[in-house]
Amino acid sequence: PSSTMVDFLAENNLCGQAILRIVSCGNAIIAELLRLSEFIPGVFRLKDKADQQKYGDIIFDFSYFKGPEACEGKLEAKPELLDLDEEFRENNIEILTRFYLAFQSVHKYIVDLSRYLDDLNEGIYIQQTLETVLLNEDGKQLLCEALYLYGVMLLVIDQKIEGEVRERMLVSYYRYSAARSSADSNLDDICKLLRSTGYSSQPGAKRPPNYPESYFSRVPISETFISMVIGRLRSDDIYNQVSAYPLPEHRSTALATQAAMLYVILYFDPSILHTQQAKMREIVDKYFPDNWVISIYMGITVNLAEAWEPYKAAKTALNYTLDLSNVKEQASRYAAVTERVHTQVQQFLKEGCLREELVLDNIPKLLNCLRDCNVAIRWLMLHTADTACDPNNKRLRQIKDQILADSRYNSRILFQLLLDTAQFEFILKEMFKQMLSEKQAKWENYKKEGSERMTELADVFSGVKPLTRVEKNENLQAWFREISKQIMSLNYDDSTAAGRKTVQLIQALEEVQEFHQLESNLQVCQFLADTRKFLHQMIRTINIKEEVLITMQIVGDLSYAWQLIDSFTSIMQESIRVSPSMVTKLRATFLKLASALDLPLLRINQANSPDLLSVSQYYSGELVSYVRKVLQIIPESMFTSLLKIIKLQTHDIIEVPTRLDKDKLRDYAQLGPRYEV
């Protein structure tokens, strides 16, 4: 690629900055939609009779646009309706405006993305084309994310703000705002994009035909762009995640983020889902051979068995995965893995196990254990989730029952594994941060110590230093001086070379001991052993790498449980009630959950966007209120205990009089109630 591709995300790279801004904006729009969906004024649902009678004549759906004059005429005929309308306007115009701006931003988003693609196409960005951007690692990620986020926006809107409600809000906004009079408003386009799809998130609701692909095609998007993005997502590991998960059985977890993006983006080209069997088989083999419940964004889960039901090619390809023998195999495998790794983690968490030397000598083993834990927790949490299974769907129920049976599923045990894993990760991360900060100082210190030992040993063989029964030996004297110099010349900044050379020095010290029969002298042997020990410590220390922390961050991702975690609330509260010290372990779990915020905030942060504050406040606010919900059990159980204490002290325990007969002492002691207090 041309030299302008050097750093796609650099501030002076206009092409990179433009798409980064779009993606940053996409993440912020989704947060705003999620936030607003909790503030829909109830009347717009027109759920109960009272609302329908009172507001039915002033709240309209899109049929209003067929004859606005007639609707307004009806109102003007009745003064009391006009008053109600005016009052309703005053109470709701603020929130309606906010919803309208959010809806408008979704439309503006896809217009901006299309304009960016046109600019790329027309050569506005010097030497950049769609092809060159897709060759760049950051460029490829951002283009895929841009389309995926648009799909997520549309799905979130339909899931959280029902079609009828959107229409009523848009009409009210249109009636109450200046949008009516301004000619340049793009209200028309926004209404076209967001008119009701007929979808309902209510359990048991039927899925509208051609949903969501017809909804996704309301604003035309470049077909070349869609097909190139799908091509990249099908063939590449666009986030280089496989390196964090070297084992083949973890591959679908390594590629899960990308798989979720592909799932959403395929709705922009439904012909693949319907008829392109070879492509669908390839997609299922790579991303869904052993999993079918996926998290698409901040814990929104989808069960492919249900989602792909209407598409022939997709459904056929997935049949292999959903075959009951495969379901049985996966579930049994996770039952075995869970049992094995849980014992391992509990072993590691025992007092004194996670010491520095032990950790440094066992990095691969510890990381493998973490991978196994996280992969198992993820699979079990997603595939046993209630949200993932429509109880009216017989096949889904059958699959879920099979999983519960074969994985010997027990939500308490799974939750315990999550707690222990989070705690284990937390301790390891803290240790690693500490070791990284001290790494260079320690390494230099070991180097100095080792080199000094060699100089001292050289002096021993010079015959100047009297050491019992050591004859003068100029060869050995020169050799040890040379080794001392070699140790001093090791360079911390070139860790690979230093590591290699250290290993050679250790070997040389082992050989000299055998070759010159130095074993007979204990003191010489001690010098050699000490030096080897320092050199080993240097190798250990140089192996403390930032990559380990990064791998732990990738592997420990819990964003898929952003909503599912709620199903464990009662277990958490129960365990706190039984043993209050649980709270410290829960802290690690909440911190693990907090890492889910990295996902939506990453691009917003890279783009230096002013949205950073509001988006991070929204998600962390959600997390804080969840933590409060769990922890409210503490004041509850505290007050229950206090009430018991008060009752015991005021009713059951008799005051001890100032003077007391010795034989009555026992009655007044009341050991039982006092012990209970």
Automatic annotation (TrEMBL):
State one Pfam family annotation: Strumpellin
Cellular component, GO annotation: endosome; WASH complex
> Where does the source fall among the domains of life?
Eukaryota
Which GO annotations describe the biological process of this protein? actin filament polymerization; endosome fission; endosome organization; regulation of actin nucleation
Instruction: Enumerate the InterPro entries for this protein.
Output: WASH_strumpellin
The family this protein is said to belong to: Belongs to the strumpellin family.
Query: Entry's PANTHER family?
Result: WASH COMPLEX SUBUNIT 5
State the name under which the record lists this protein: WASH complex subunit 5
Which species does this protein come from? Cephalopterus ornatus (Amazonian umbrellabird)
**Gene name, Swiss-Prot/TrEMBL:** Washc5_0
